[in-house]
Amino acid sequence: MSKHRRLTLAAVLMCLGAALLWGGPFSQAKPPGGGGGVPPGTIYYDYSPGGNYAVGSVKADGSQNTAVNVKNYSPCHMLPSNKLHNGKRWFLRWDFEGETTNGITIRSLCVVQEDDPLEEKAIELLAAPGPDDTAFVCPDGGFIWWSADDQMITWAGHLLAADPVDGVFVDMGAAIYAMETPIDPATGLWMASPGPPEPVVTDEDLRHAETDPLPYFVYFDMTLDGSKIVVWSRHDETDPVTGNQTPVDHDLQVFTLPTETTPLQRTVLNGTAGCVWPAISPDGSKVAVSNAWEAIDVITLATGARTSLVRHAGATYRDLHWSPAGTHLVYHYYNRIGGFTNLRVTNNDYVIPVAGGGATCINKDQEGGPTRPLAWR
Question: Residue 9 burial (CB < 10 Å; 0-12/13-18/19+)?
Answer without folding.
Answer: exposed
